[in-house]
Amino acid sequence: MSHAPHRENALTDQIDALDPIPISALQHWAYCPRQCALIHQEQAFADNVHTARGNAVHRLVDQPGYEIKAGVRIERALPLWCERLALIGKADLVEFHPDGTAFPVEFKHGRRRRALHDDIQLAAQAVCLEEMLGRTVTAGAIYHASSHRRREVAITDELRDLVAETAQAIRKMLAAQVLPPPVNDARCRECSLKGICQPEIVAGHAKHSSALAQLFDPDDSA
Fold it and tell me: Based on the structure, what is the number of domains in the chain?
């Protein structure tokens, strides 16, 4: 009896197998798709005062380990993965409460503020924990080091959907190997990759090219 169909299924599985996307890439994409591409596609990175502060904050939770406080088990630098979305990464800190509830905490430098790109990163950690533990994660928190305050985030279905959509968008970008255009707005001032990205120059060139195209477009003639 021929086993060709089994070989075809195995080959299909190999073709369909997805390289894992780092959870951090979702945060980068939500902040700026071009930043995500430069880091995860072009392997480009540079430090500034914001990345240096972020690195200092993460040193508090970079070493794996655990402790128990008031019956709550606190895991640091916990590896995470989600086979369904092919995500991989680690949580800065996860609290495991006596009732089995998992509560991820992401550390960020700066003062307490709401930022969707941070919420997506936290939600991706929650999605991983849900698959790993087989139970729903309803909330997590962003810990802001400068103000020493937590901002609790509800892990809603909308956030879970956004995690899946963002992972898919990143995968398409990596497959296309095309660098997204710069946002060229207030976000660029905070970005350590501004010198590599050169948003003003790239955006200015695109605007100039568009103006030239319209100038010689016969459809615009009166």
Answer: 1
Query: Is residue 196 situated within a structural domain?
Result: no
With a CB cutoff of 8 Å and minimum separation 6, the contacts of 12 are none
CATH code of the domain containing 50: 3.90.320.10
Q: What is the pTM of this model?
A: 0.78
Most distant CA pair in the chain: distance in Å? 77
- Rg of the chain, C-alpha, whole Å: 21
Question: Is 88 a member of any domain?
Answer: yes
Provide the residue range defining the domain that includes 113: 16-182
Residue 12 tokens read as 């299909």
Residues contacting 183, CB < 8 A, separation 6+: 32, 34, 199
Q: Write out pLDDT tens, residues 158-198.
A: 999 999 999 999 999 999 998 998 888 888 888 888 888 88
Quick check: 90 and 79 in contact, CB under 8 A? yes
